[in-house]
């Protein structure tokens, strides 16, 4: 799953080019293995469908066989049909990447667990917004990413497998879920 890697959001992202590169590598390996690639695309007052800001960044543009689901909430399952798409394909484990770590990535990963999916959080494949002055109510971007990676490394969810892996260690089986390294 690639969450909200859209032009306007990637433009304000911490480690934008490194995150895009990590996710692009995942997409290429998934496609080569015949595993489904699902892109979630936020749409709201600031991300109006059809605008340049709303479009997925060119490096992660959907291929014809990919599934693109519009969403209007941080939870990628809410009102999107994502659960149906995954179940119809027999998917039991999802690889989660995208923007923003503490909002849409977190909400979607947690909902995946609640709905019975195993989760791989791509440690270098999610990011958040740049916070230039380092002040304010939010953690610094690098701290936020590290914090969520650590939470998921230690998260115990009954009956579910939760892993945190760098993009380079995520493998795919043909047409299926990630393989165990």
Could you provide a short overview of the structure?
This protein is α/β, with parallel strands linked by helices. Helices cover 31% and strands 20% of the residues.
Description:
The longest helix is centred in the N-terminal third of the chain and has 18 residues, at 16-33. Strand 7 (171-172) and strand 8 (178-179) form a beta hairpin. This protein has 181 residues and is of the alpha/beta class. It contains five helices and eight strands; from the N terminus they run βααββαβαβαβββ. The strands form two sheets. Strands 3-2-1-4-5-6 form a six-stranded parallel β-sheet. Helix content is 31%, strand content 20%. It has helices spanning 7-10, 16-33, 82-88, 101-114, 141-154; strands at 2-3, 38-42, 67-71, 93-99, 118-127, 162-165, 171-172, 178-179.
* C-alpha-based Rg, rounded: 15 Å
Structural shape: globular
Run of helices and strands: EHHEEHEHEHEEE
> How many helix segments?
5
Q: How much helical structure, as a percent, in the residues?
A: 25-40%
* Residue share in β-strands: 15-25%
- The number of strands is 8
Q: Which structural class should the secondary elements be placed in?
A: alpha/beta
Which ranges are low-confidence, i.e. pLDDT below 50, for 5 or more consecutive residues?
none
Mean pLDDT level? 94
Q: How far do the termini sit from each other? A: 19 Å
Instruction: Enumerate the strands of the largest sheet in spatial order, edge to edge or round the barrel.
Output: 3-2-1-4-5-6
Biggest sheet layout = 6 strands, parallel
**Which oligomerization state do the chains in this entry correspond to?**
single chain
């Amino acid at each position: 799953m690639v969450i909200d890697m859209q032009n306007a959001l990637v433009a304000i992202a911490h480690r934008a080019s490194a995150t895009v590169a990590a996710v692009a590598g995942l997409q290429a390996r998934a496609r080569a293995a015949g595993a489904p690639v699902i892109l979630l695309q936020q749409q709201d007052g600031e991300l109006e469908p059809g605008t340049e800001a709303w479009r997925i960044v060119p490096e992660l543009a959907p291929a014809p066989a990919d599934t693109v689901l519009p969403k209007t909430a941080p939870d990628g399952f809410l009102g999107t049909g994502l659960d149906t798409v995954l179940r119809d394909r027999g998917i039991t484990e999802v690889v989660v990447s995208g923007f923003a770590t503490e909002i849409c990535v977190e909400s979607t990963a947690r909902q995946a667990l609640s709905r019975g999916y195993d989760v791989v959080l791509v440690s270098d494949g999610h990011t958040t917004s740049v916070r230039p002055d380092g002040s304010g109510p939010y953690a610094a971007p690098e701290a936020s990413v590290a914090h969520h990676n650590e939470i998921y490394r230690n998260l115990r969810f009954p009956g579910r497998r939760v892993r945190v892996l760098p993009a380079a260690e995520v493998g795919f089986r043909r047409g299926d879920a990630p393989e165990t390294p």
